[in-house]
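Researcher: Here's a chain I'd like modeled. Treat it as a single chain, no partners, no ligands.
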Amino acid sequence: MSGWRKLYYKLLNIPIKMLVRSKCIPSDPIAELGLDPTRPILYVLPYNSKADLLTLRGQCLAQELPDPLEPFEMDGQLLPRYVFIHDGPRVFNYYTPKEESVKLFHEYLDLHRNHPTLDIQMVPVSIMFGRSPGREGQESHEPAKLRVFNGIQKFFVVLWLGRDSFVRFSQTVSLRYMADEHGTDKTIAQKLARVARMHFARQRLAATGPKLPVRQDLFNKLLTSKAIEKAVEEEASAKKISITKAQQNAVDMMEEIAANFTYETLRVTDRVLSWTWNRLYQGIKVHNAERVRQLAQDGHGIVYVPCHRSHMDYLLLSYVLYHQGLVPPHIAAGINLNFWPAGPIFRRLGAFFIRRTFKGNKLYATVFREYLGELFSRGYSVEYFVEGGRSRTGRLLEPKTGTLAMTIQAMLRGGNRPITIVPVYVGYEHVMEVGTYANELRGATKQKENLWQVVRTIRRLRNFGMGYVNFGEPIPLLTHLNQNVPNWRDSIDPIETPRPSWLTPTVNQIANKLMININNAAAANAMNLCCTALLASRQRALTREQLLEQLDCYQQLLQNVPYTQDSTVPSNTPEEMLEHALKMSKFEVEKDNAGEIIILQREQAVLMTYYRNNIHHMLVLPSLIACIVMHHDGISRQAVIEQVSLIYPLLREELFMHYTDEELPQVLETLTNELERQQLIRTHENGLLALNPPRIRTLQLLAAGVRETLQRYTITLSLLRTNPSINRGMLEKESRLLAQRLSVLHGINAPEFFDKAVFSTLVATLRNAGYINDVGDAIPENIQSMYDMLAKLMTPEVKLTIESVSELNVSGTDSE
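Model: Modeled as a single isolated chain. Structure tokens:
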């Protein structure tokens, strides 16, 4: 590089350093994209901009990547480490230099022809200042184009949007592979430049989204749809009002529902949220974001379906997506959040509001369905919570399938974009509403959201530990339908909204798969692991040494036998996890001459079950194996597999677990080997498994993780055993009452222990698994064999309580 050019870059870098605060996407490109800093890198940028080049250079130096301003040398030939695909506009149009990208690509390909061991990594990099998609106008249907600026325009862009910028590194392309597979002539160089242009245009669309509609124009278009016209006519006829009045009703519904997204609100909110997250959380860990970025760049319509833990979910996911270089989605929010000032703010951030039920209001259902279909057809990403509401127990709720069905119906109307559903696990080390959830489970009335509630929440802002956003395995709807409903295209109708016979079972199948994929992406963390260990102790207290030993046991189980590849486990040591959890002020520490005791107070224990339940599905199988071994003097591996296999269908339905019946034996064998490796259990000379006395305390705590679940199953089976003809409603009611009694007598602190939904799922699963026949009567021999097995896993006092109350209930029923 010549001396004057070095001076030019040094001078230009001064304002760039002052004005630009860019974000790197992904945050660790070397690890996430597999970049090798020791191999040569060619940076590919969309158009000639020295501001972009210096912004890239700053991030490269920060990430310890090769400096793009340092030329690449080979055989005495110096080549720049960067290439601009397009030269870009000029302040003075009369001077238009030749584009150098094709020439430079050709020179690099020639190097590979002459040096067989050379393999240069070509890395496309987008530098984006601001992400406003613009509003629709006369050219609203044209695809988004890459926005390029001349020097003067770029100066003002950097001045105004320098702190709202990001540098996005994309997957590398091996020039060795290109040279070997496609050759090194100029045609291949031209193809590389053409593909790069398309790549950058798609990347911008993924970051900004399509142009925003003029709201009134959107309403006018919806009113002309055949489905809404028909619904308006039926509304007028049913309510005996004029067509004009019925149309006005439809417009009022659109006003109530529709989002009013603005980029300016998004920018301001991003700064507010950045401050909020820094005050609330010590950090936000994001996992598998690259798979979503790739879907967006490939042109998929994305539907984000997160689990619902807190009102924070709306904001957290949008914030994470924005900082991953993606456009925040339009969010289906409950109408309860449409209060001043939150409602107008959420609406400008992309929220569209949905009533709790559509029952009895066909016009509203049609308007909402058409609006949702319009969002998909225009290419907006959408987010909704398939659980319907926030989980009060920390477990996933049974899915509500209405919005999911509408998503498939929108696709059946003939949209061109493939729609892919992305499950998202959202986890916290502290949920602000968890105290309210516990009160509601005890019978308190749910409080209506309002401004005062928001103010009280803001006043309590403090450090809540870490937040976790893990993107699960996506579900492409086209692929799923092609595999499971081969003739689904026969149902496509661009005018009517079809509801074919296959829709309901298919929606239920997808919904169940969604919940499984959310749980597959669960995040174990210091808080939920510590809560799991302390709640397993009957006294809710452990010495520091015992707690560390238990954390180490959980961590090794989850690392050595991962629940799935999408789940995450802390890499910290048990000591670091415990210190982090203690800073959250959930536990008390008492000291005596023998050391420290970590205590979970009784009133806190109920709240802490929420965090334990977040990862219960990840540890339930090793807990069950430990429990079975604990309650037998010696048991064969095959007997363990047989007993777990009997119980597993109940666990699978309740906890949305992913193992199939065919996979289960191998999983159990691997888990048993891991428990033996940790010396929690041992194999006798006769081949039977038994506990290992020196490690009995750790094994007991591990086994206790499944204790309450097995007690619930035993309660219901005991009632069926003593009264096989009991109807479903009475069975669920009596199961809950007996569970409440058991919780009082034996100090069980888990609110979900007598949760109505849990027992409803259990009874339905027993029927599907062949324990209850089609008439509704229990099958005695099946019930008895399962009960006998579970009874052996109960302590004598718990078993006695269950059997005595079950027989008492039967006597009371008979007397009636």
